Amino acid sequence: MGADERLEAYARLIVRVGLNVQQGQDVAINGLVEHAPLMRAVARAAYAAGARYVDAFYGDYHVKGAQVELGPEGSLDWTPPYLLARLEDLAERRGARVSITGDPDPDLLAHLDQRRVGAARMTRLEDLSLRQVVENRISWVVAAYPNAGWAKAIFGEPDVERLWQHVAEAVRLDAPDPVDAWERHIALLRERAEALTERGFDAIRFRGPGTDLAIGLLSGAAWDSAEAVTTWGQRHVPNLPTEEVYTTPDRRRTEGTVRSTRPLGLKGTLVRDLELRFRSGRVVDVKASAGADAVRAQLAVDEGAAMLGELALVDGSSAVGKIGITFLNTLFDENATSHIAYGAGFPLLAPGAEEHVNSSAVHTDFMIGGPEVDVVGVETSGAEVPIIRDDAWVLS
Amino acid sequence: MGADERLEAYARLIVRVGLNVQQGQDVAINGLVEHAPLMRAVARAAYAAGARYVDAFYGDYHVKGAQVELGPEGSLDWTPPYLLARLEDLAERRGARVSITGDPDPDLLAHLDQRRVGAARMTRLEDLSLRQVVENRISWVVAAYPNAGWAKAIFGEPDVERLWQHVAEAVRLDAPDPVDAWERHIALLRERAEALTERGFDAIRFRGPGTDLAIGLLSGAAWDSAEAVTTWGQRHVPNLPTEEVYTTPDRRRTEGTVRSTRPLGLKGTLVRDLELRFRSGRVVDVKASAGADAVRAQLAVDEGAAMLGELALVDGSSAVGKIGITFLNTLFDENATSHIAYGAGFPLLAPGAEEHVNSSAVHTDFMIGGPEVDVVGVETSGAEVPIIRDDAWVLS
Prior knowledge:
Two copies of one chain form a homodimer.
Chain A: H1 3-19, E1 26-32, H2 36-48, E2 53-59, H3 61-70, H4 81-92, E3 96-101, H5 114-119, H6 123-134, E4 139-144, H7 148-155, H8 160-170, H9 178-199, E5 203-208, E6 211-216, E7 228-229, E8 235-236, E9 245-247, E10 254-259, E11 264-266, E12 269-271, E13 275-279, E14 282-287, H10 292-299, E15 308-313, H11 319-323, H12 330-333, E16 339-343, E17 363-367, E18 374-378, E19 384-389, E20 392-393
Parallel strand pairs in A: 1-2, 1-3, 3-4
Antiparallel strand pairs in A: 5-6, 5-18, 6-10, 7-8, 9-15, 10-13, 11-12, 13-14, 15-16, 16-17, 18-19, 19-20
Helix pairs in contact in A: 1-2, 1-9, 4-6
């Protein structure tokens, strides 16, 4: 498959599987100037799929950098009203939205005042965007564009072709018919999630080297997977790739010790060999061979930061996990193996038990699964049911 | 001067002279993805000049091409409402607007259905943008970014550095202090325009090889030059470069023959050796060694297309004219030498005589001045006063 063909296949996947674009639907594409080739390919694919109008909107971190460096303090967090109108109009038209990730220059803002970097956020836009997602008012997907800066951050050299091959593998572009491969993949994940929801386990337990962790679940909590559905019934797949089935735990009932099985990229700091100890749901001890302070700082952000919000299961069949690299991008890394996240949970997954779902401004996923880590479901009786053994899914 | 330094000096010129950005003012920048380096430099320069917030907005001809090729007919001319809100908000905040030109791929849409290419225009946005300009509700400037595609169209090869040198010369970046050089240049053009307005000539006459043309002027009509002023009194320079002093003529009173002295680029067609004959203000004969039909088609667009709307005087001191190339971009080419435009005139320049100012959907400038073409002002008595002789300005 040539590079053009691969780009087109990727764009088609984003449009057909990610957004599931409907005839006559409006499509917005958000990305950076450096993502132009994928933005253009997605625009073409969206029109080919019947889109009424495609609105490609380019951000530019260099312009933001100029603002952080030279702009007045008072407008650092300003959101131009037209950007809110753009999102609102799209939702009112029952539109679809693609977000392209893949940071072309992770060090771009590193030399600037980090307080101002942090302050330069369009919080009103972020809030509206998140609200539309939570309320299922939009069909949306996040996908990544392999570029030189991102490749350099991973490999130490701008080997874009190598990154492209990994991304293509992760999103199943190497399958004879990627859209069909995704249909089957989505069905498999749905079956796993349904089986977990039906079992109604009281807790999930991880056991492996350095890990013996029990995470209490909420009664009636649901497990979810690849697909989301808009208020008007349009199915879509918000993350490409996605390999996880996930739920939101009882924030009060995490006990034991866990050792991270993959490095964690935390805003420029690489955290290695992270070990956390939990008591009554809360992190009480943090160790790491590198980056422990970055984790401690996050855990101190607010009341909920040191408790779990998410629990996700991924077995060794993961297309991302098989690649074996750290992508330094959560969209990929959280799909490599089983993971948990400290910080915000998902109240919608635990109807009736929202008060015990964690709440925080933080949400950081880190990887705890792997070939040596077994996962069991714990029934109210205390009986254990294998879920993942020897990195293979065994629950049915 | 290194390439970075040159880009910065250009951006500073655009911000300081073109927009004359005020402390706390909002600035919008409109360009294409291919213009990113200049967009970024202008953003920096604007913040450095005290801008409150800089909004860089990228268009993408490739996305437009996808729409022309694959999008539904009904939305080809659709303007997303948020784009109108963006312009309105900026004007309400008394903002400033930079438009970057320099077509990176003049042939991009050539293989598509030209009727659909023509239909794919955001007419509501264009109308609003023009209305804001006409009503002086915005400080604005148009400037060009030298890029490979534009250079290739001119030179047959993508010699961007050569184009950069020409553009730098045209906008006086080669002066020791470009901003200062522009202050003096603007003052000179203002003096010329004031002298012409005070003289109140009845007509302007061009005489040279193949040219003997008299253009009747309107009583009380004003000549204008580089600067414009917003409703709140902010001076700015809408075109970089600019070399002309111009007025809007009496559309009924053009008589004689004129021969173009430079090739005219007309939407992909190069018109050579254009000769027009006028009677009672109207073109009655069109000749050219190439492209005559493209001109004839334009002249047939509407009632006003075959009459003059603009008359502009430029002498041999023009920084653009000295370069001696055709830039295939009106912003430059119309500043090379004296020119006239068939089509729309400028009613604001002839208060009380608006009914005799031309009106049309067309406005095409073509060059008629040069070393062999003398320009005189004709007084009501019939006496002639030299304005440009041997390519030098002589009226004082």
